[in-house]
Amino acid sequence: MDLNAELSENQKTILKQFREVVKDCQLPNSEDAYLARWLIARDFDIVKAEKMLRNSLEWRSQFKIDSVLNDDYKPPEVLTNYLSAGIVGQDKLLNPVWIVRYGKTDMKGILRSAKKMDFIMYYVYLVEGLIAKFAADPKKYNRVPDALVQSIIIFDLEGLSMQHVTNKKIIDLSIKLAKFYEANYPEYLHCAFAVNAPKIVSILITIMKPFLPEKTMSKVHIFSHDDKVWKAAILEHVNPDQLPVAYGGTLTDPDGNPNCITMVNMGGKVPKSYYFSYKNDTTNKKSLSIPKDSKEQLEFQVKKAGSILKWDFHLEEGDIAFAVYRMEGSEFISIVPPNRVDCDMSTEEGEIRCDEPGVYIVEFDNNANTRSKKIWYAISVVDSINPID
């Protein structure tokens, strides 16, 4: 966005007034483009924009954000090695282009190995690093002196599983991160492309939508696995020499890798050597022994549409297949498709909104294992229309 060209005369006047209102603030950036972000995010309501800005400045002071790029902060190794996010180039407006391989990221493994605040601070580190690049080389990013530099993000959802969209810890973190980004980095998103999206992405959208402004949601474009369609859409905004071959461009690593993993890692399974050491709590949980080559199905009555079916379970050893179904006559309707869950070193927590009343089946399937398994579980139905407590 070019402020001089796109702001009305009235909005330019409000921007001058806003600068006077916050003149007592210690701003990390005194340019008009920085102040305009807060006004745009609050539809040029000075009172709301001032509150938003002052709250963010208080957060910056409390967590010493201005020094996060110094040697005082060292990102956890598990995040630098297994959280797939990085910059690959610039779009046609000189905005940076990010790739986030969310579907390839072992979010459960990361949350077994890093605290939520570590995760958020790492994203702060990435964003603040980018903002520092803006300041250090304005000619590279500012097509005109008063440009509002934003970002294009390509979210690659290849590999997205039910774990990403039902695991309570992952969903809680996703919501917290989205709200935090909106509150402290307004108008840094130009647009986002969610590509290789499986059908289950609709669950994630339903959960996230109440926590993101409509303006932000309108910037997100979702595409299935038809790469001809989504590559063409991305190339309308980004020249080929600024994109990896895998995303429709011409960039490769020196060894020819089309994914440019020297710029953005491929995520992957987090080794258990990174996991925190702690003992799973069996308080208020029931136990169940499941012999090898067998499965157990637990029935739960959901009386009201919109209720939440919650689960929290762990094994004493190994993994097991987990699924949720809804009974329709004698037929099992898949709600959470069967997937293997490795939950001996930490609990598996999740929840799903039940759009229809009826009998729901929670299944633990030990058919693929050669040993019996003991599982500790707490499963409940809660009347609520909110997917997150």
Explain what the structure shows.
With 389 residues, this protein is α+β, with helices and mostly antiparallel strands. Helices cover 32% and strands 25% of the residues. The protein is built from 13 helices and 13 strands. The strands form three sheets. A five-stranded mixed sheet has the order 1-2-3-4-5, with helices on one face. It has a four-stranded antiparallel sheet with strand order 6-13-8-11, with no helix packed on it. Helix 3 crosses helix 4. The C terminus is likely disordered.
Total strands: the figure is 13
Give helix % range.
25-40%
Overall average pLDDT: 91
What is the molecular shape? globular
Order of helices and strands: HHHHHEEHHHEHHEHHEHEEEEEEEE
Largest sheet: 5 strands, mixed
Main-sheet strand order equals 1-2-3-4-5
As a percent range, the share of strand residues is 15-25%
**CA-CA gap between termini:** 37 Å
Secondary-structure content class = alpha+beta
The value of Rg in angstroms is: 23 Å
Number of helices: 13
**What are the low-pLDDT stretches, counting only 5+ consecutive residues below 50?**
385-389
Outline of the structure:
The chain is of the alpha+beta class. Helix content is 32%, strand content 25%.
